[in-house]
Design goal:
By secondary structure, the protein is of the alpha/beta class. It folds into two domains: 116 residues, Alpha Horseshoe (Serine Threonine Protein Phosphatase 5, Tetratricopeptide repeat), CATH 1.25.40; 229 residues, Vaccinia Virus protein VP39 (Rossmann fold), CATH 3.40.50.150. 42% of the residues lie in helices and 16% in strands. It is built from 15 helices and ten strands. The strands form three sheets. A five-stranded parallel beta sheet has the order 6-5-4-7-8. A three-stranded antiparallel beta sheet has the order 1-2-3, with helices on one face. It has a two-stranded antiparallel sheet with strand order 9-10. It comes from Tulasnella calospora MUT 4182. This is Arginine N-methyltransferase 2. It is found in: Cytoplasm; Nucleus. One of its GO terms (biological process) is methylation.
């Protein structure tokens, strides 16, 4: 064995020994013993058991010790580490119905992600930040890809994109219709007596679900601006007659192309704004949040977005929903949440797509300017 390989093996063995010792002491539940071990030996807080994938944080959650959880997090334990089954320590806390332990882990996640954003780093902490360069996670790759509009065997309309490796991902799927229905209902609160038609901005057309709902309001919008960048979506919109609808203006490009231009600001503000862009990270969504106050017409105007980031894990979804609310508050927007039931996990709902939402409840945000 080469010297370098030998040294690496010695290091790995020492790391495993120290990490295993940490897990054993944490499992015993004696916080003073854990403090002493950490002070004396400085064991690796990131260590995870090679079989179970459990970290010290998972173990502390399992024995329901909020005190140990707080200490481990202060010492650098990774709040979003997942075990071999894909569960975080927060999921373990949820499984024991220990709200206090769950809150400790979740709040640590919120603090961590908020600090990353404040420092100007990409938000995500390894959860939302991705190195995936396929059309599923890269805007450039998505815009260069071919889309497939079709109706699946269950009569569900879907728009699919090739994510590489023979896998497809739904850009938008029919199961989202109840979410869109409730979103428009909530956005329209306060505008029920409007008789002149609202001014509406939507970013990202997809299947046109929410735009169709906007067009079918009791009073047709006097202005309905749609920003869409994908060539295949634009072609689909043309084939469906969207370019010819009264009051509809289609801006061909990304929202970043128009956000500081007269093409958008020249409309004089919007009563409602919605955004649902595919393959953009949270950092870009947060950048859009910053512009929302300048795009809204007034205090009674409303804003929402498709809240799907982190939606394959309950704690991640909770963290990023709360993180979004905090950032929106910084930009002068208050958020009211409501719950929408999501169809079950039946494979038929997904039409072979990678599942990008696996929770039973969708958290619907409605934002308005602070008084």
């Amino acid at each position: 064995m080469a010297t370098e390989e030998y040294e690496d093996a010695i290091f790995d063995a020492a790391l495993s020994t120290a990490g295993t010792r940490l897990l054993e002491v944490v499992e015993a539940g004696d916080i003073e013993a854990v403090r002493a071990l950490v002070k004396k030996e400085q064991p690796p807080m990131f260590y995870q058991d090679p079989e179970s994938g459990w970290s010290a944080l998972h173990v502390a959650a399992n024995i329901e010790s909020s005190e140990l959880l707080s200490f481990l997090l202060e010492e650098g334990a990774v709040w979003n580490a997942v075990d071999s089954l894909g569960n975080t320590a927060g999921d373990i806390a949820l499984s024991t119905n220990n709200q206090e332990c769950y809150d400790v882990i979740r709040d640590a996640g919120i603090r961590s992600e908020f600090i990353l954003r404040a420092l100007g780093d990409h938000v995500g902490g390894g959860v939302l930040k991705t190195d995936d360069e396929t059309a599923a996670a890269s805007t450039d790759a998505f815009l260069a890809s071919n889309l497939r509009y079709t109706t699946d065997e269950n009569g569900q309309e879907v728009c699919m994109v090739d994510a590489g490796g023979g896998e497809e991902v739904g850009v938008m799927m029919g199961w989202e219709q109840p979410i869109m229905n409730e979103t428009v209902k909530q956005l329209c609160t306060g505008h029920e007596t409007d008789s002149e038609g609202l001014s509406i901005l939507n970013v990202g057309f997809g299947l046109g679900m929410i735009d169709t709902l906007f067009q079918n309001l009791p009073v047709r919008p006097q202005l309905h601006v749609i920003i869409e960048a994908h060539p295949d979506v634009l072609e689909h919109m043309q084939s469906k007659g969207w370019y010819d609808k009264p009051g509809v203006v289609v801006l061909e490009g990304k929202w970043q192309d128009f956000i500081d231009s007269d093409d958008l600001s020249g409309f004089g503000g919007f009563d409602m704004i919605y955004t649902d862009t595919f393959s953009e990270e949270y950092s870009e969504l947060c950048n859009f949040f910053e512009h929302v106050p300048d795009l809204l017409k007034g205090p009674g105007s409303s804003f929402s977005w498709f809240n799907g980031l982190g939606a394959t894990n309950a704690m991640f979804y909770d963290v990023y929903s709360r993180l979004a609310e905090m950032h929106l508050k910084d930009f002068g927007l208050s958020t009211i949440w409501s719950d929408v039931e999501v169809p079950g996990p039946e494979d038929s709902v997904w039409s072979g797509s990678r599942k990008y939402f696996s929770l039973p409840i969708y958290r619907l945000p409605i934002c308005r300017m602070n008084p």
